[in-house]
Specification:
422 residues, alpha+beta, six-stranded mixed sheet, five-stranded mixed sheet, 16 helices, globular
């Protein structure tokens, strides 16, 4: 009798291991997913999660930075990491015969990083360059301004990269202290997907993650959505605009209705915003919507990049679509959105990397792996009334507006509130 495709084991240390066996693949994605990110930092250590992500590959008691890269690339493997507001991940993809090396390297950088002062200073400079590059990229940094306005003066609103002043001043013990607090086994999921044997992965995790710190992570400060307006006038060819509202957290009963709402409004080339604003009126090159859930809050937002003259028409048309979606969704639109979500879900299951990340995140957010059939059923059960009712609730709330560039033609927050309430 073959083993179940998905298996979960929790070690006595609190470390959770989850695997999914995917037939007919020759590779394995392997990663460690930590339930801590930007919102778990203090004000003085803002950017520590991201700084740690950089420093993890810069040397351990066993390997220097060159050896970490060389050993992975000697077997054709790929290795990376990312930092988000509520989690941080370190992961790689290797051929199935190299899973032991993957576990060894990821475990080594999380348990035995040395934070050599010379490497720390070198990487501090790299991060300052990254911050400078982000500040010079308006269609990137505008999202940080949007986030900091939506969640003003609190951890949820702080930039993931940190600020130049904080990064310049951040001492080594701020990084090691943050790691000791948050990188413990009970705050981490080790996940693997592909040509895996569950028991083998459990033993590898038991061996290579044995030296994780006995952490006592601090609870994240509760998110408090405030909304508001941010404008930065720059000499740019385009206005970069993000308009959003407080939305839903993970685990909300209407989370699937929210995904469908985003798909209908701005989720693809057939979406209302794309068709009306780009295809019919030619006002933008790029426009889309997205829903971002968090543990205890969430955002729904629309991004658009447009010319200075076109901005005067862009916002009224966008607001019209936000009003119209509250009472005028067709059965065909909803069916198309459901098909898009189902296809996206099923396509993601074919990627070992996507599946690895999904397994870990579902365990951290929901406490269980959610069966695909359950998700499909919940998508299928959403009605037009569900989506329209949710739209009415969201878009009559307090907006958040962030603009960069020549945005004199973009109306202010009071006008937006008035038009959406009409």
């Amino acid at each position: 009798m073959s083993e179940e495709p998905i298996r979960v084991t929790r070690l006595d240390s609190g470390l959770t291991i989850v695997t999914e066996a995917m037939p007919r693949v020759e590779t394995i994605s392997f990663g460690a997913y930590i339930a801590a990110g930007t919102r778990h930092e203090t004000a003085a250590e803002n950017g520590a999660s991201h700084f740690l992500e950089h420093m993890a590959f810069k040397g351990t008691t066993k390997r220097d930075a060159a050896a970490i890269a060389r050993e992975m690339e000697d077997v054709g493997g790929q290795m990376n990491a990312y930092t988000a507001r509520e989690n941080t991940a370190y992961y790689c993809k290797v051929l199935k015969e190299d899973v032991a090396l993957a576990a060894d390297i990821i475990g080594d950088i999380l348990c035995h990083s040395t934070f050599i002062p010379e490497e720390l200073e070198r990487e501090r400079g790299v991060i300052l360059q990254e911050i400078g590059q982000a500040n010079d990229t308006p269609d990137d940094i505008v999202f940080d301004h949007f986030q900091s306005t939506a969640y003003a003066t609190q951890p949820m609103g702080r930039p993931t990269l940190g600020t130049e002043d904080i990064i310049k001043a951040m001492p080594r013990d701020a990084l090691t202290g943050y790691m000791r607090r948050n990188y413990g086994p009970a705050n981490m999921v080790v996940a693997a997907a592909g040509a895996v044997q569950h028991n083998d992965v459990v033993e590898l995790a038991r061996r290579h993650f044995a030296d994780l710190p006995i952490a006592s992570p601090d609870s994240a400060e509760a998110a408090r959505y405030s909304g508001g307006e941010f404008r930065e006038a720059r000499d740019l060819d385009q206005v970069h605009l993000v308009l959003g509202f407080e939305a839903l957290p993970f685990r909300h009963q209407h989370s699937h209705a929210l995904m469908l709402l985003s798909t209908i409004l701005g989720g693809g080339m057939s979406s209302r915003l794309f068709q009306e604003i780009r295809e019919k009126r030619g006002l933008v090159y790029s426009i889309y919507s997205y829903a971002q859930p968090f543990e205890d809050s969430g955002l729904f937002a629309i991004y658009a990049g447009t010319g200075e003259k076109e901005a005067a028409e862009l916002v009224p048309v966008t607001l019209h679509e936000l009003r119209r979606v509250q009472y005028d969704i067709t059965a065909d639109e909803l069916a198309r959105a459901k098909a898009q979500l189902r296809a996206s879900l099923l396509m993601s299951l074919e990627s070992t990397g996507s599946r690895c990340e999904q397994l870990a995140r579902q365990l951290q957010v929901h406490g269980r792996v959610i069966p695909t059939e359950e998700t499909k059923a919940k998508i299928a059960a959403v009605t037009i009334d569900d989506v329209q009712g949710l739209a009415a609730k969201l878009f009559r709330g307090t907006p958040t507006l962030a603009t960069m560039g020549p945005a004199d033609q973009v109306p202010g927050l009071a006008h937006i509130v008035e038009k959406l309430a009409a």
